[in-house]
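Closing statement on the flavin-adenine dinucleotide sub-project.
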Amino acid sequence: MKVPDRVLVVGGVAAGMSAASQIRRRLPKTRVTVFERGDYISYGACGLPYNIEDPEREIEDLVVLTAEHARKKRGIDLRLRHEARELDVDRGTLTVVDLDSGTESQAPFDALVIATGARAIRLPLDGFDLPGVEVLRDLTDGAAIKDALKDGPKSAVIVGAGYIGLEMAHVLTERGLSVTVLEKLPQLLPGWHEETVAMVADTLSSHGVEFHTGATVTAAEAGPDGRVAAVLTDDGRFDADLVLVAVGVRPNVELAATGGLRIGDTGAIWVSQQQQTSHEAVWSAGDCAEAYHRVLRRNAWIPLGTTANKQGRIAGANVLGLGQRFQGIVGTAGFVVFDLEIARSGLSEDQAKVEGFDPVAVTIRQRSRAHGYPDGVPVQVRLVADRETGLVLGGEFVGREGAALRSNTLATALAGHMTVADLQSLDLVYAPPFASVWDPVLVAANQLIKKVG
Ligand SMILES: Cc1cc2nc3c(=O)[nH]c(=O)nc-3n(C[C@H](O)[C@H](O)[C@H](O)COP(=O)(O)OP(=O)(O)OC[C@H]3O[C@@H](n4cnc5c(N)ncnc54)[C@H](O)[C@@H]3O)c2cc1C
């Protein structure tokens, strides 16, 4: 394959900058231009909740690589506030608009990486465009929420009880607001097991967070100052000086669609494990793209920063013809709510059924430290496997200590297509300060093996 002279990258956060940096590092002579429609590049969006929690920290602390560093040290031709509007794969051009001057130009490429990410879903309801109604997706959103907090709001409503909504319930409570979470579906953390959710619900309640499930939001109302003052549901009215809409994200596939690239069944851009799209000169990575799922053995869409960074690197290497392969995700994710760690990897029982497995599962509780060692707390593990083959399919972890990182053991087992018997026989670390002689993962496997085979 001929090494391309001109590479364009659209999107300058995790996936885009990983790809651009990879190309420049491996082949410093290649011309790489990054178009980013926003004001920032390369920041850790995952750190937004924790940054918002601390009024002393600047939002820019989250920037990993400044525009100046990218240009001067990495030699990347970075164009901030430039939006790519149209892709012509036959001519090998992008139509780009400079958002400040309004000037439109054609940018030719030999290879293109689309790393346009995802956007927060907004609610198309009355009042959800009022000042004080926010989403949390990028650095600008984070700055807006931090600014709003300077006005000393007393109450917040969070619409959506997924992981970002609950992380922010914690953050806004710590910032002194009285917080109500409204969730349309019948449980907090839709898709998680009820025993995990029960521990999360207890933690929220014990910190004074009010929550309502099965609550359909209908509108938001303004106060006398024109800012949001309340959220209305089919079940009542909730005062809110600040509203956060956290109902999920959608992949930004519009640019790819203008070029006729294949969009997968998930709604994100279809990519091969080489991160190549349906056109040979176009690669894609990060939240706008699908990712190969090792348990499902097909593409899935689970937009996370860890995947964006890995895929971006691989897209960059493959633009240069290195033929690298993205090995795949297993759906590992974690977060904290107050002092509670919550994590998962793989499939839930419900997902496993939909995928044609015959799942069996157990929930166990084991101390985070050895018996007799002070201050141990329960770690709750839910483990799911296929009844017939014993193949480990997934699980969830929740506890006040030593819970989240234990999901890495499960993630490793899933990547290796291990059975419950394999998992049960793992030589995991034991020392009284951080595990019992039977690690919680092993205890779960010991129980689950009774149900398989
Ligand atoms: C609050 C929060 C907490 C999170 N916590 C975690 C976590 O703990 N762990 C984890 O793994 N992940 C987490 N994530 C997810 C993680 O931040 C994303 O997966 C990651 O940012 C994806 O990177 P990306 O480069 O693919 O996309 P994005 O970050 O969405 O970046 C895409 C960029 O492309 C630009 N763009 C889009 N279209 C165009 C266009 N046409 N022209 C020019 N530019 C364009 C956008 O302006 C944007 O800057 C969290 C996200 C949020 C919001």
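The pocket of flavin-adenine dinucleotide is lined by residues 10-16, 35-38, 45-46, 48-49, 83-84, 115-118, 136-138, 164, 252, 255, 286-287, 303-306, 308 (CB under 6 Å). With this model delivered, the sub-project is considered complete and its resources will be redirected to Aim 3.
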